[in-house]
Amino acid sequence: MITPDEYQFLQSLLLKQSGLSLGPGKEYLLESRLGPLAATFGFTSITALVLNLRGRPPQATVKAVCDAMTTGETLFFRDSTPFNVFRDSLLPEAAARARQHLRPVRVWSAACSTGQEPYSLAMIADQEAKRLNGIRVEIVATDFSSPTVARAKAGLFNQFEVQRGLPIQFLLKYFTKTEQGYRISPELQARIRFQEHNLLNAFGGFGLFDVIFIRNVLIYFDTATKKDVLERLARQLTPGGCIMLGGTENTLGVTSALARDQRTPAPVYRAPGAVTAAA
């Protein structure tokens, strides 16, 4: 069993290293995820792992602990409304702006997990190619966990994963069945640049984006971390760009840098000036 002192230490470590704000009563979660990890690193118990973490542990150990606690569940076209709004409104709007400036549309999946979200966005971009009329769509996909990013980049999914949210016509068009599972098409993979990134770190080198998907992530952050991440993300938007949050997330009481765009049923947020001008 994790002691109160160990729990407090792990809370502090996770908040500092990954932004994860672990509330009270989550001992079971730590035990279920860190128990196997401790054994992997050769520790006899979570207590032994914590003792190592209190010293000067290799960064790989710290990162593995954070990876284990931040890996989330995902599926293709999760909560269909955001993807419908992206297809019907956000993507055409972004393409019109991009055409004026002779540039591609840029989309960021800022917590891509094992890749279902960015691959879903890439499928939409491919389906809408005729309407885009030559405008390219660049997708950047990042996640805190290096093993998760590696899985996403590999583009290999099991039968259970492709059955969750993926329309059958998309499975037939974009995937090839192999002995290892269902492999996504190289053409779709080429649309996406995967890389490991901690949202607590600077976004230097990422450039500006027309649409940023960061869904079901902020719920794990405390208010100060939410404010910091959202305000830095807002500065990564092109003029007229937007941020897509999760269905239970909002910016109320967190920051005034973003406001809900009430014209859409999805949780789309823009700079307040952009929302006012469009109203």
Overview of the molecule:
Helix 2 (27-40) crosses helix 4 (59-70). The protein has 13 helices and 10 strands. It has 2 domains: 4-70, Chemotaxis Receptor Methyltransferase Cher, domain 1, CATH 1.10.155; 80-278, Vaccinia Virus protein VP39 (Rossmann fold), CATH 3.40.50.150. It has helices at residues 4-18, 27-40, 46-54, 59-70, 80-100, 116-127, 129-132, 146-154, 159-162, 168-174, 186-189, 223-234, 272-278, and strands at residues 105-109, 137-143, 156-157, 175-177, 182-184, 192-196, 209-213, 237-244, 259-260, 268-270. It is 47% helix and 15% strand. With 279 residues, it is of the alpha/beta class. The longest helix is centred in the N-terminal third of the chain and has 21 residues, at 80-100.
From the 3D structure, determine the CATH topology of the largest domain: Rossmann fold
Q: How many angstroms separate the termini?
A: 55 Å
Mean pLDDT: 91
What is the CATH class of the largest domain? Alpha Beta
Count of individual helical segments: 13
- Rg over alpha carbons: 20 Å
User: In the residues, how many domains can be counted?
Assistant: 2
Which word captures the global form? globular
Strand content: 15-25%
Low-confidence stretches: none
SSE string, helix = H, strand = E? HHHHHEHHEHEHHEEHEEHEEEH
Helix content: 40-55%
| Strand line-up of the largest beta sheet | 6-2-1-7-8-10-9
